[in-house]
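Exercise 3.2. Students should predict the tertiary structure of the chain below and write it as structure tokens, then compare their answer with the key that follows.

Predict this chain's 3D structure.
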Amino acid sequence: MWIHNINPLALELGPLQIHWYGLMYLIGFGGAWWLGNRRARQPCSGWTEQQVSDLVFWGAVGVIVGGRAGYVLFYNFDYFLQDPLWLFAVWEGGMSFHGGLLGVLAVAWLFARRQGKTFFEIGDFIAPLVPIGLGAGRLGNFIGGEVWGRPTDQSWGVIFPRAGDMLARHPSQLYQMLLEGVVLFVLLWWFSSRPRPRMAVSGLFLMAYGSFRFLVEFVREPDGHLGFIAFDWLTMGQLLSLPMLLLGGLLMLLAYRRKT
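Answer key:
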């Protein structure tokens, strides 16, 4: 067993504080920009480096705005009703992947209209770029000692003092980093390296992420103020991931049917 005692601050100079979690965002957006430009330079990609830069910038806006809104509305809606201005209190922390995804989808729709591309042309291009940010974000969660796992007696259990009970817990953040970051990236990068039917890459992303998140939620501690949503095992994360899994499977089916 190991007691988590990592300093969440990467740099502290007087009033200036730089958190590791914030640096993970920079790594995620920087990685997406680099990989996107690499793809744009391939022959007949249909993309320019300027388009990639614009897409990554507005995608970052969608992640931050959507992630904050999703956290407030999906996980703290009662508190939001009491104090609607809390939605803008971003300095207090709190982000939701599913909200960030909705923000990115909104940006993709607007970007597609402005650039004369289809929505799924944007989605298929974005999907392989996302896992770098997901993996980095989960590493940031682990360094910050937040969103920990459920108690375990396994030898790799970690004691997170912020949990307040000194129980050894699953380092579920690292599980998610491995699945949502490393495995998902390898899967999507390999799948998208060959021509695929339109919607297929987007569908695989939704289906794979939904599956990975649904599984890890069985060892991740549910949000304390929400607990289990149903059946004494279904969490909010699983409830939000189910539509992703089903929609991803539907998109894959439609993509290959349309190709046939």
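Discussion points: The mean pLDDT is 91. Residues 52 and 69 are 25 Å apart (CA to CA).
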